[in-house]
Structures
1.
Amino acid sequence: MMAAEAYPSYPPELSQTQLSYLLQNLMDYSLSHGLAVRPAESFISKELSSNGALATHAPVTLFPSPFSRSCLEEGRAVQKDYNELYARVSGNEEWLEKIIVELSEVDDFMARLYKVHLDVKAEGFVQPLSLGLFRSDYMIHNPAEDPNALPVIHQVEFNTISSSFGALSTRVSELHRHLARMGAYPSDSIIKTENIPVSPALPELAKGLAVAHKAYGSGGEGRSTAILIIIQPGEKNIFDQRWLEYELLERHSVQTYRISLPDVPKLTKLASGTRALIYSPPQAPNTQIEVSTVYFRAGYGPEDYAGEDDWAARTTLERSKAIKCPSVITQLAGAKKIQQVLAVDGAVEEFLADRNVSSRVRGTFAAIHPLDQSPAGMAARKLALEKPDTYVLKPQREGGGNNIYRGDIPGFLKSIPESHWSGYILMELIQPPALENTIIRNGGLMSGGVVGELGVYGAILWKDGEGEERGKGLKEIVMNSEAGWLLRTKGRQSNEGGVAAGFGSVDAVLLVD
Amino acid sequence: MMAAEAYPSYPPELSQTQLSYLLQNLMDYSLSHGLAVRPAESFISKELSSNGALATHAPVTLFPSPFSRSCLEEGRAVQKDYNELYARVSGNEEWLEKIIVELSEVDDFMARLYKVHLDVKAEGFVQPLSLGLFRSDYMIHNPAEDPNALPVIHQVEFNTISSSFGALSTRVSELHRHLARMGAYPSDSIIKTENIPVSPALPELAKGLAVAHKAYGSGGEGRSTAILIIIQPGEKNIFDQRWLEYELLERHSVQTYRISLPDVPKLTKLASGTRALIYSPPQAPNTQIEVSTVYFRAGYGPEDYAGEDDWAARTTLERSKAIKCPSVITQLAGAKKIQQVLAVDGAVEEFLADRNVSSRVRGTFAAIHPLDQSPAGMAARKLALEKPDTYVLKPQREGGGNNIYRGDIPGFLKSIPESHWSGYILMELIQPPALENTIIRNGGLMSGGVVGELGVYGAILWKDGEGEERGKGLKEIVMNSEAGWLLRTKGRQSNEGGVAAGFGSVDAVLLVD
């Protein structure tokens, strides 16, 4: 069931000459403005690229994608509430524990992370401040069965660690604005600079890090302070990270250092007593830098931990006095399961007391129905059996089985005992508008049906309780801001030919009313 | 005869770890800030790079090179005088004619260019304004035989067309400043940000073009105006050009278009009567753009003219109402022969009436002695025979033979009849300070003895006489400014091992007193 093309005359058709002109300008602008990545090995062999002397343009769309102005506004407007929600969730361990323990049974990675948190908690935390650079991801929901309904945003996931693409998001909106301004798009198209806002993600995320750095205060024993970025070796998306470093240095005079988890034991130590995290750069081994903030751009998945040494490294960082972006408990709060539990009636409301606020947050959730014997559950059972076309059936326990889509739902339910139905939830499928675009990647083009995902960044610095009060509720929000957005555009899953599914790119919003 | 190392403890020695840290940071900063070129085919095959999706860092030095503060100041201080000198030379055809006619006998390219000028002159020029974006190139002269002499700059050549590397010059000074600021150089080295000024070449050259564009006025019949850049197809140094375009668009709201000489007949025409140059972009063939300024980044050498069609194209541009940067006569004024003639006593003084000004200009000339029977000539003959080690013997007629260096001079003079000696001039060899540095190119390193060449940019817009008055002296200087600098560093010619001669790079000045 594919929605009709939302903007049938978009993108504008180009002659071969127009396409070639647009492409040249896109390539040159991207490559000169650091809208770039290190080339994939499938594109440029390791031998040629190993010295890091090459860059290629980031995967981008040729055109900005039409995006509902009210949807962008809604996503931005709700971000500070989301920041607060997840900060409060992180700070409420009683609430979290039950879910994480259950999750740990089926997810070893979550279990291991939780152990790090509990170990450090047993010893006692020395840093009450936590930084979150979050990203809330949405798709536009525009149900085909109701052509008069206004488009709304529905949340896909909430990221509490390593939210990437902020800098490239700023750069790609500048790219599309530039192309519009210089006349690379046909002059009769709807692509005008005034409808392509520049995402402030790069300056805003850097500002978030700078605020944390400053809040840390000065180093002990006259040490200078810096931010330590935890990276994956061989990162291809390095320029997205570098821009934050440049912004921090140039605009905030904050130094940064990059380190991978395996290097943590060699290059860092904790000062006895204060547990200040001391970093000695390999290029200046006699220097002692005190780390104000540990910013994770790695460590978000199990593949980043090769063995116990890496877990020990993560534990060292968590034990330290440095502000963590994020702390382990905040990383755990980003589990999909938490998102699901928050969608249950009353959950969000526990954390956001103001009804206007909690209902605005709830308004961005996709509908989730229990399939138990409550009145809501009974109504949902009827939906699942009779009108399953816009739903997905998911097992309650993460890792407990596969999702069942649309028309497969009634048959599946009938194949299992009715007493097991309450182990599932019924989720509304998000129905994004059908769009067309061309994605360019490694210099190659793919045109066809695409789907966009909006990410809205947030930056929040908060203070947890100290000592016995840790984990018993957030104490103070020091800084809370919306921090720009990202539009990621990829090939539609059920697309025949054209852009392959998952062939992703960064994109700019072309605001439409 | 190699001078002793000028800064024996420079550049600082690096450990392997320090080098690798510096390199990574240099690569990433260059590639994200457009300090880049398209990779050479010797590095990346044409198949991989043909779609323009790759960039590599520009060839740069690892360290900024020590450069005398007073020499940079002198070069900058004299640039406006040089701008005026060459504008006045361009406007004085009586003076130029004799030299160019003589030059034309041995140089077909000069002859052909001069024919273009004469053809257009016969018809009459319709644009009194000319733009010069010049670059005066110097080497530091620091004679080894006089260790107490202050270093001075001596001119190598004066470029009146396609002066390149302005944007990369701005970017490389930003690069070295960044590396100094972030701590990529050893902290006990003399490399400090306050001694690495940023060259304003990029904004200043763009401003020069913008001033010309504005002075052109509005287009006829409601046409919008733009700058047309004449380019070589397949330009590898494209980002150096693109930055000017971005600066023009973003800071001055001036549109630019790129075109190669062979495309001129297809895409342009002259409006009848006004001879306004009308450009129709291939990507918008129904649009008529009036060209305010033709900016040549090609056409400077014979290899840019494949045949009569390209000469016809150049003629069309010269005939047009557009302001030329430069006009053909200004290009001719940049011949090496003109530089030589200007060095003769009284020549500069013909154009720059103020003695302070003309002597300041003359102060940057390398000493040139006639070998005729004048008293000066007789003294020079003695020098040539007895102390030839710091001289080069050059035939008066360009293209008339090879240069004779140093110790070969006495033997050569004795081998020819004394009556022929006046056909030669004796030029002082510039003795630059011996420096060491590392040049990085295509990701590969070459360390060793290097020599630096300073280029100082200038921008000047002037008005020639109209009608009968054309060529009889410049009428008015509309704008005249110094426009930043460039330091190019290459391997020393007689270097044993290390940096190969001509292995050039862009560099930043590290000011020393």
Note: Chain A is about 35% helix and 25% strand.
2.
Amino acid sequence: MRATNLYAPTLRNTPAEAEIASHQLMYRAGLIRKSAGGMYSYLPLAWRTIRKIEQIIREEMDAAGGQEIMMPILQPSELWEESGRWGAYGAEMIRVKDRHDREFCMGPTHEEMITALVRDELRSYKQLPVLLYQIQDKFRDERRPRFGVMRSREFIMKDLYSFDKDVEGMNESYRKMSVAYTNIFTRCGLDFRAVEADSGAIGGGHSEEFTVLAPEGESRIACCDACSYAASDEKAALRPIDAPDEAELPLEKVVTPHTSTIALLAEYLKIPVEKTIKAVAYQTEDDTLILAFLRGDHEVNEIKLANAVPGARELRMAEEEAIRAVGGCPGFMSPIGIKEGTHIVVDETAMRMHNAVSGANEADYHYINVNPQRDFGAVTVADIRLVEEGDECPVCENGHLHIGRGIEAGQIFALGTKYSAAMGATFLDETGKAQPLQMGCYGIGVGRTMAAAIEQNHDESGIIWPRAIAPYEVVVVAVNAKVEEQLRYAEEIYEELRAAGVDVLLDDRRERAGVKFNDCDLIGYPVRIAIGPKTIENGSIEVKVRRTGELVNFARDTYLKGVQDMLATL
Amino acid sequence: MRATNLYAPTLRNTPAEAEIASHQLMYRAGLIRKSAGGMYSYLPLAWRTIRKIEQIIREEMDAAGGQEIMMPILQPSELWEESGRWGAYGAEMIRVKDRHDREFCMGPTHEEMITALVRDELRSYKQLPVLLYQIQDKFRDERRPRFGVMRSREFIMKDLYSFDKDVEGMNESYRKMSVAYTNIFTRCGLDFRAVEADSGAIGGGHSEEFTVLAPEGESRIACCDACSYAASDEKAALRPIDAPDEAELPLEKVVTPHTSTIALLAEYLKIPVEKTIKAVAYQTEDDTLILAFLRGDHEVNEIKLANAVPGARELRMAEEEAIRAVGGCPGFMSPIGIKEGTHIVVDETAMRMHNAVSGANEADYHYINVNPQRDFGAVTVADIRLVEEGDECPVCENGHLHIGRGIEAGQIFALGTKYSAAMGATFLDETGKAQPLQMGCYGIGVGRTMAAAIEQNHDESGIIWPRAIAPYEVVVVAVNAKVEEQLRYAEEIYEELRAAGVDVLLDDRRERAGVKFNDCDLIGYPVRIAIGPKTIENGSIEVKVRRTGELVNFARDTYLKGVQDMLATL
């Protein structure tokens, strides 16, 4: 391809709405353009990268036994009523009526569709396992679309679904996918972690996220410094922390004026915050009140908290009225004296404290010498704490967790029989008995992987593509394309590289050298070859590595091998 | 791929709704499954064929200077209001509201989107031409979806849009696309015609349809037997037919009881129907009456008629009341005596008749000795006749038109400035003057091309794939896969073919030979290789060509070349 024919409108400025580097650079480098909030067109350079990512995904899915199919985007509401998700999915689902007033959604995911597709035709254990996948636009009407294609309302996703005859089979399919995902992100040239994750609204059993590390990423992950344990902050399991042994003292109520925060309380009583117990009050979608108690210096993990209360899903901060209705006093709360039947969840670590301080459910009063095991009565005890830098690893002996940030580019789920049981997708097992199919589902955000790659690989001049997913591996620049000799030389080099199987672009534009070099850095081709006056003079071919800035001058007869050797390392 | 791992559920029976062979066979061969009216999933075999067709399309689009992009499926209503099509598109457009009540449609086509995409960035004639395309799901809520993926509500389309600086440039882009389309359908192994077509609701100037010939096709096309002229029946231009010269006789009104049809009239007056003039009355969407007159043995071409009346688009049969309001009498109509200002369109051939018979706008009365040139006054004269078998070719000297049927798999349009002018998509020309972009648009129905291929290539046993788009080129059948020796031999042959670059499937299922052979014929692999007892005995390898049924026995050391030679001809 020649740059004179390439539709790649680069920009000097960044639109105001682009908050993070990848979004800004995708705009400026002429990769994407916005058509409406959370909806983007992929221009030719971006689409080349997307197709390279898709090809890597396809090869790994096929190698793991996947077969590619394509299901419709529009999905009849009846299927979602069978699974119970038509009502549950909420405002993120885009709903459509056809000319006969029949209801459809624009697929946010395809568990229902694929279960319906196979349920009449996967009849025997002999046909299993079956792994089917597609690469397709998905639709979620995000409340706050942002970060360009990273969190958009229409996005490209690879979704694979596995069907097995038993849990062992499902686990084997899950394991294969975990390996395939590791291969995919490795082949894309990305630094990533496979982290334990919450299975959220998809449901089912265990789940892993594949998170591309990037300082501005939305996801917070905890990684052990001694073993391979890694988990999303939503999921990271934590060991309860034992408090030093103490003889239990009698519970006592004390006056504590102006101490409605933990900091004020600790200062007033001249105790460390680790001796206090704090409360956070939530309400669920159906207004059920949940009171959470943790050690004063700890934070609530809302996902763990919701998982600890049956039926709870989305939590919001509780209204004062609701707290008062159960006998609570905001700013001065403890489980002691709260109305029976209220959902009280106490963190495992808080439960092990001795002679601690907590509210007395009365303004300006606290209890001292609180011993939760003795004083709290019937409460739910669970790990509801948010992981912090330096927490002990829950798996190995001596490791500590470190908090990093990243972008979740893929997630895999062992679903079990959640959908197959609800939708009657059964097969006959070896004994002739009907059993629900054991399912798994496995997604990769394709556009998001591209954005994550940029978020992880850029500098102040622009993108630095990993070679495997660069729109072109090499750009050959005719430094002054108006000089016939330079242009012809550049064309020669371009043709030689093409013939050698290199994915190469010729920048033959009659622009100033500075403009072209800036565009090369902005777009981020891994290797730049400049053909200028020195090349004409003495055959010296200047090759620049985008990532390191390294400049190497090759002779005419050695440059090809030099470039190929460079590419092998990028 | 091994058939034991392949998800290809073949069926004995055909669902009742499948009316035509391609739909029936796609069901039975396990290529597609229906999820709702006009919505289908493509299973693995079908998806392989789709991907092969897509790859051929991509190569030809790229070779013609096209660049692949991807625009969103959801399109904001504002863009369609700019072009004036938001109101005009009608019930076929699927409309959606997002959570902020903003209106979108699910793209039925992308002229508005692409015009908006490039209008701020194609600023100079130096950037032109630009040709951008995508391969994407499109949505049209057909009133009567049918024939499986051939006329479905969600379908895969390749759409390319060209932008040029002048009409010559547009015509050059159009010509390149016409060549590319010819290459695509040729490479797919299809027998097709490029036919002149009406540009319909898309608008603009000239247009061609690429019609795959098939006896059950929905499209009627006229092809000359002497030259390369071909046109859709909607478009086929016709030469006016001269009537034999006669001296004009005086107009006379005669009583003609019970002659409200042309047949009855001709019999009553004992004249050939070629001496009569018949009337057909229509009303437009805004109720305007249009009276059409043709020679008694000719039929109206409603598209040509609508094109002859400014502002007319969709025509329906007129109500009697409307006819009477302008002085007409149903069954006995002529232009003579109709109220002034009424839209009267007379076919060119009817206009050349002498001493003909037409209605007298009074029940049971006709005029004889009607001479349209003398008697009809101010009427519109146009070619409004539907082509018939044997009509003279409008282009060459001695040719005659023959009527065939086919499936429209692609259509190309020279749009001109219809969208660019309405949406302010201008560039600066050589003189620095702002000019609207000259556009073209070019579509291929990808799923429809697959269905058309089947419609054209099948027999009573199943599909007969052209090699280039077969899901697999060759199937190797282990005749009795329970016999270890046969299975191992088949695997060996399968691996040899794979190594030689043949796209091959191994049928290793432990089914009866008959079942497997029937499936091979049904699915339609171009070449079948059977490994059975004779192979074990004396190395004889039986190769069958699906299209001809020809059976050839090769020796172990010659079969590979034999199969490759066969494939080259399929």
Note: The mean pLDDT of chain A is 94.
